[in-house]
Design a protein that fits this description.
It is a single chain. By secondary structure, the chain is of the alpha/beta class. 52% of the residues lie in helices and 13% in strands. The radius of gyration is 22 Å and the shape is globular. Bound molecules: guanosine-5'-diphosphate and manganese (II) ion.
C-alpha cells in the first residue's frame, strides 16, 4: 500500500488539462461573447431567391410531413424553390414525393432521382447544379422548422460579411442526455458565432450563399460532416458562418441505438476537424483560436481522460495507491451528476468514433428509425 505514486501525479495533471481546458473555454466564450450584440448590418429589403435542398434516402415515413412543414414557411412562395434529391431509396420515398408535388401545384418543387446512392454530399452537389436560388438551404428530412426559419436565415445573410447561417437544435421529443448535451453545445455555437464563426454546422438547417459554395467547390464528398466542413471552408474564405440564437430547429432522435447514432455523427466531426487541422490558412484571429480549441476538444482531449484513467487503474492495481483508488472511486460516484455523466459519455463516444473511423468512414450510413 502506498499513499500515492508518480503515476497518480501524471494522471492528475492530465485530468486537470482534460477538464480544465473545456471549462475555461466554455466560461471564457460565454462571458466574453454570449451577451455581446451582433456586429451585423441587417438589410430588411434583402429578398433573394432561395433554393431549399432536401436530401432523401429511405424517408418514406417522414417526407410528407417534412414537405408540409416547408410549405408553411412565411418566406414568399414566389422566391422559394424546393429540390428533393433522392438517392435510390428502396422504400417508395420518390413515389410519395411525386404524390405530394401533384397535390401542391402552388409550390415550386422538383424531385431529382439519382440511380445510385453515393452519399449525402454527392447528392447535394448534384442538386446544387439545378439550384436557381441565390441562397441555398440544406435541410434533413427528420427535423421541423419554425414557420419563420427561412425568413430569419435570409435576414442574417443580408449582411455582406455573412456567408452561411445554421440553427440551434432541440430534440423534438424529451431526451435528458440529448437536452443536457445540447444546452452547453448550443451556447458554445452561439458564442463562437459572435466571436467570428462556429466550425460546427447542422444539416437540419444550413443556409449558404451560392456563390461561396461554388467558390469552395461544393460539398465535400470524401468526409461525412458536409455541413460543418462547408461552413468552416466558407469561414476560411473570409465570410462568417454563424448560428444565431433565435433560429431553433426541432430534431427527431432515433428510437433505438442512440449511442450508435452519436458515434456516427462524432466520426463525421472527427473527419472534419482532422481535415481542418491539416489545412493551412490565414484567417481571423478569434476564429483561429476557436478552430484550435475545437480541434483539441475533438481529436486530443478525450484521449487524455483515457490515459489518466488507465494510469490510475495501473497505480491502484499494481501499487495499491490510496490516492489512485480514491480518485477512481470519486470519478465513479460523480457519475451521479448529470452534467458530468453527459460529459463522460461524450468522451467515450469520441473515442469509439475515432476507433471506428479506422474501419469505415460511414459516408453512406444505415438509416436509423426516428
Ligand atoms: P443524421 O441526422 O446524422 O441522423 O443523418 P440522417 O440519416 O438523418 O441523414 C441526413 C439527411 O440526409 C436525411 O434527410 C437523409 O435522408 C439524407 N441522406 C442520407 N444519406 C443520403 C444519400 O446517400 N443520398 C441522399 N440523397 N440523401 C441522403
Ligand atoms: Mn437527421
Amino acid at each position: 500500500m502506498r499513499l500515492y505514486t508518480v503515476l497518480d501525479i501524471v494522471a492528475l495533471i492530465l485530468a486537470l488539462i482534460h477538464f480544465g481546458i473545456p471549462l475555461t473555454y466554455y466560461f471564457y466564450l460565454k462571458n466574453k461573447y454570449l451577451n455581446k450584440p451582433w456586429n451585423i448590418k441587417i438589410n430588411p429589403n434583402y429578398k433573394p431567391k432561395v433554393t431549399i435542398i432536401v436530401p432523401t434516402y429511405n424517408e418514406a415515413k417522414l417526407i410528407w410531413k417534412k414537405l408540409d412543414n416547408l410549405a408553411e414557411q412565411t418566406y414568399p412562395k414566389n422566391l422559394t424553390e424546393i429540390i428533393v434529391i433522392d438517392s435510390a431509396s428502396t422504400d417508395r420515398t420518390p413515389e410519395i414525393v411525386k404524390k405530394w408535388i401533384e397535390q401542391h401545384p402552388n409550390i415550386n418543387i422538383k424531385l431529382i432521382q439519382e440511380p445510385e446512392r453515393k452519399g449525402k454530399a454527392h447528392a447535394l452537389n448534384h442538386a446544387l447544379q439545378h439550384a436557381t436560388g441565390e441562397i441555398v438551404v440544406i435541410t434533413d428530412v427528420d427535423c421541423w422548422w419554425p414557420k419563420n426559419a427561412l425568413q430569419e436565415a435570409v435576414k442574417w445573410l443580408s449582411d455582406p460579411t455573412i456567408g452561411a447561417v445554421s440553427c440551434i437544435k432541440k430534440p423534438a421529443t424529451p431526451h435528458t442526455t440529448e437536452e443536457t448535451y445540447r444546452k452547453y453545445y448550443n451556447t458554445l455555437r452561439i458564442a463562437e458565432s459572435k466571436a467570428y464563426s462556429t466550425p460546427i454546422f447542422h444539416g437540419e438547417l444550413a443556409a449558404y450563399k451560392k456563390t461561396l459554395l461554388q467558390k469552395i467547390g461544393g460539398f465535400p464528398t470524401n468526409i461525412g460532416a458536409d455541413d460543418s466542413h462547408t461552413a468552416a471552408k466558407i469561414a476560411l474564405t473570409e465570410h462568417r458562418a454563424i448560428i444565431p440564437e433565435n433560429l431553433e430547429v426541432k430534431e427527431l432522435i432515433p428510437k433505438k441505438n442512440y449511442p450508435l447514432w452519436r458515434i456516427r455523427r462524432a466520426q463525421h466531426l472527427i473527419q472534419h476537424f482532422t481535415k481542418i487541422a491539416n489545412t493551412r490558412s490565414k484567417t481571423n484571429s478569434s476564429y483561429r483560436k476557436v478552430l484550435a480549441l475545437e480541434i483539441f476538444l475533438h481529436l486530443i482531449n478525450p484521449w487524455l481522460l483515457v490515459i489518466a484513467s488507465l494510469l490510475l487503474l495501473a497505480s491502484s492495481l499494481v501499487f495499491h495507491s490510496l490516492l489512485a483508488i480514491s480518485i477512481l472511486i470519486l470519478g465513479v460516484i460523480l457519475l451521479m451528476l448529470r452534467e458530468y455523466r453527459v460529459w463522460v459519455i461524450k468522451q467515450i463516444i469520441l473515442i469509439l468514433a475515432a476507433l471506428r473511423n479506422t474501419q469505415a468512414k460511414e459516408i453512406t450510413w444505415k438509416k436509423q428509425a426516428k
